[in-house]
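Regression test case RT-17, inverse folding.

Input:
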């Protein structure tokens, strides 16, 4: 695929836009109920699922995926090195909130009768956030990871959307967790939590305690506003960490400005 356009901002950033047909990702769009969509946003958008098809869009072997609600504070090159050294397909940031388990997004009664032999073990596995991750696209394609995820989505949709309560994060993790539970070598690596300091768009205290102290903030490599309170909204949270970076690149957002606080 060709490049749609290139924009440079003050010589410090280059954005290359890659067009794609939404039909490409249609098999990876899970059913989500209206209540969940109202709270989480348009998680069923094609742009959300395209991260599962990057091997069909990019020629690079190692790619770092970043959600649009992130701020990169430090060089991400070490992620490439870490993943190659691990000899695994995907690398996640460890979760600072260790209580986050995949069971929080799945029904413990297993209404869809999914993988009964491994189901309760799955529920206890860490729900790694895929808003920031590094992937070896050659290994991803060779292991047919996209096709595995599409099959999980097919089962979820055939069950009326009751297999999980989320978009593509659960099937993404299932494609890595299930082989490990079946006895295959673990194919994902876990790096330090500083690579994805998330939770900044949820409750005011979530995530803040780790970065409001100077030493904590200096260690954070990627800030991530998971949750509904994005920093560009009037009632966005932790905007003091986001606004200085927004102000660095006005050329990327011509005619736009941060929505002022309502209070």
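Golden output:
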């Amino acid at each position: 695929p060709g490049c749609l356009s290139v924009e440079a901002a003050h010589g410090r950033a280059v954005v290359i836009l890659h067009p794609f047909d939404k039909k490409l990702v249609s098999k990876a769009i899970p059913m989500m109920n209206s209540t969940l969509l109202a709270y989480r946003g348009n998680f069923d958008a094609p742009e959300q699922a395209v991260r599962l098809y990057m091997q069909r869009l990019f020629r690079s072997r190692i790619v770092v995926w970043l959600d649009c609600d992130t701020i990169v504070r430090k060089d991400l090159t070490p992620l490439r090195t870490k993943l190659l050294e691990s000899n695994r397909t995907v690398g996640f940031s460890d979760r600072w909130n260790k209580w986050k388990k995949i069971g929080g997004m799945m029904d413990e009664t297993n209404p869809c009768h999914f993988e009964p032999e491994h189901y309760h073990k799955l529920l206890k596995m860490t729900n790694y956030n895929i808003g920031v991750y590094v992937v070896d696209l050659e290994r991803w394609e060779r292991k047919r990871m996209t096709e595995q995820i599409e099959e999980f989505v097919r089962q979820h949709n055939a069950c009326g959307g009751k297999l999980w309560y989320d978009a593509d994060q659960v099937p993404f993790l299932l494609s890595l967790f299930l082989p490990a539970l079946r006895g295959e070598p673990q194919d994902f690596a876990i790096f330090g939590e500083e690579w994805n300091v998330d939770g900044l768009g949820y409750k005011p205290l979530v995530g803040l305690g780790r970065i409001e102290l100077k030493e904590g903030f200096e260690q954070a490599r990627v800030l991530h506003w998971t949750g509904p309170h994005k920093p560009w909204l009037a009632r966005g949270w932790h905007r003091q960490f986001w606004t200085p970076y927004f102000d660095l690149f006005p050329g990327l957002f011509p005619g736009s400005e941060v929505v002022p606080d309502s209070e």
